[in-house]
Design goal:
Structural class: alpha+beta
Strand content: 35-45%
Helix content: 10-25%
Largest sheet: 6 strands, antiparallel
Radius of gyration: 27 Å
């Protein structure tokens, strides 16, 4: 007689149960927390004169920037700072000197506890644009001298 089902191996059911429980523990131990750090009316990393400045106008849309830092096996690849995220958001819109009516949010995702986690800082707001900065030329970036290669 030919058997279509392979003979049972001792302990196969127990191993399958242990693998299923282990996967369940890993999935249930992952977590995500979102914390609203700050709601603001005006925020900037520049020194801006708001009173008596007729060159300021509100932008049409909203800008959003996000910085990310990961930690793998207790070794971080960087830190997140609100000032850096605000500066990145200001650079997204030409002539932007401040953000209006926005928020700063911190998110932390833990995929495998003590092994792999991701932190994010998100800044979102309406840009305040200084039209006098739009007419100013960009500051040229310094060029790195390239060695000249002479051909034989």
């Amino acid at each position: 007689m030919i058997q279509l089902v392979s003979p049972r191996r001792p302990g196969a059911r127990r191993r399958a149960l242990l693998v299923a429980v282990g996967c369940g523990v890993l999935v249930s131990s992952s977590a995500c927390t979102t914390t609203r750090v700050l709601d603001f009316s005006v925020v900037s990393t520049y020194s801006v004169q708001l009173e008596g400045n007729d060159e300021l106008r509100r932008g049409k849309g909203r800008v959003k920037s996000e910085i990310v830092a990961r930690k793998i096996f207790w070794i971080p690849d960087g830190e997140i700072h609100a000032q850096e995220a605000i500066g990145m958001a200001l650079e997204l819109e030409p002539g932007c000197v401040a953000l209006l009516d926005g928020s700063i949010t911190r998110r932390k995702q833990v995929f495998i506890p003590y092994i792999w986690e991701v932190k994010r800082m998100v800044v979102e707001g309406t840009p305040l644009i200084d039209s006098s900065r739009l007419s100013q030329p960009e500051i040229p970036q310094p060029r790195i001298a390239q060695p000249e290669i002479s051909q034989p």
